[in-house]
Automatic annotation (TrEMBL), chains A, B:
Organism (species): Turicibacter bilis
Record flagged with keyword Zinc: yes
Protein name: Transcriptional repressor
Keywords for this protein: DNA-binding, Repressor, Transcription, Transcription regulation, Zinc
Pfam families hit by this protein: FUR
Keyword check for Zinc: yes
Listed CDD domains: Fur_like
Family note: Belongs to the Fur family.
InterPro entries: FUR, Fur_C, WH-like_DNA-bd_sf, WH_DNA-bd_sf
Amino acid sequence: MTQLSKYEAMIVKSGSKLTKQRKQILKVIVDHSDEHFSAETLYDLVRHIDSSIGIATVYRTLELFEKLKIIRNVKIKNDGVNYYDVIDLDEQNHFHHHLICTTCNRIIEIADELESYEAFIKEKYGFNVTDHDLTLYGTCASCQ
Amino acid sequence: MTQLSKYEAMIVKSGSKLTKQRKQILKVIVDHSDEHFSAETLYDLVRHIDSSIGIATVYRTLELFEKLKIIRNVKIKNDGVNYYDVIDLDEQNHFHHHLICTTCNRIIEIADELESYEAFIKEKYGFNVTDHDLTLYGTCASCQ
DNA sequence: GTGTGTGCAAACCTTTTGCAACCGG
DNA sequence: CCGGTTGCAAAAGGTTTGCACACAC
């Protein structure tokens, strides 16, 4: 069973229909699983496959995929655009972090955990962390 | 010298004019220094003082204050609105984190550092962290 | 067949911009 | 005074929505 068909199974399982458009969008997302994408980006990519698709469908599909936890919204920019990335199937949790180089604007994804920090927060504030969003800004190795 | 006049000094020092509108907006921000605010929120608050102010002025002022590091943009929601909070004058660095309770939606600000984690990132990726943005989601003490 | 999903266009909402008038230094 | 700043209104840009038609199950 491929990565793609597992996501398709998630759509079917949720009771949603596996339409041509959803398949096309899903394929483009999986083929670009190492990138961050916006509705506009996806729309452009999918239009190469099927020029009749509408931007509204892309927005509605992103909303569905986010609800199904196929993709997640990542808060990496404040330019008024929503960006997403795929949630890996064998990702044990929803944690992933970004290193953004303020010199070359490169975005590096890392998976290192914050377990000890979260234990500390639990201890100090009685707050039980279930998810998080971490972006580190600075200069990457090649820009230093 | 009050907190307010220190911020006013920062405006003058930057070469910008200390207009009536900027003073009014600054006062409202300082009076609500424990909250996160949007342009709309500020606009509503300032209109109570001076009903002739324009929303465009609020946006332009937020842009100026952000550049002067009087306020910072916080990525706490994806509702298409930009939120800000005041940067405390005696804040040693620009680090501050949010705990967002997914049950009651309360936002708790904390100041605990991530120094050891950043040292680890430097070691492993050669990435030099100068700033960061961390939001932890979960359940607060009273919601558990 | 039935109801969910789609494409289109209009509407919406936040933010930005052009411009003439205004006012702070 | 002079140039930065403002208020207004229009525009821009991203996202949402109403509706008739299409299609997955």
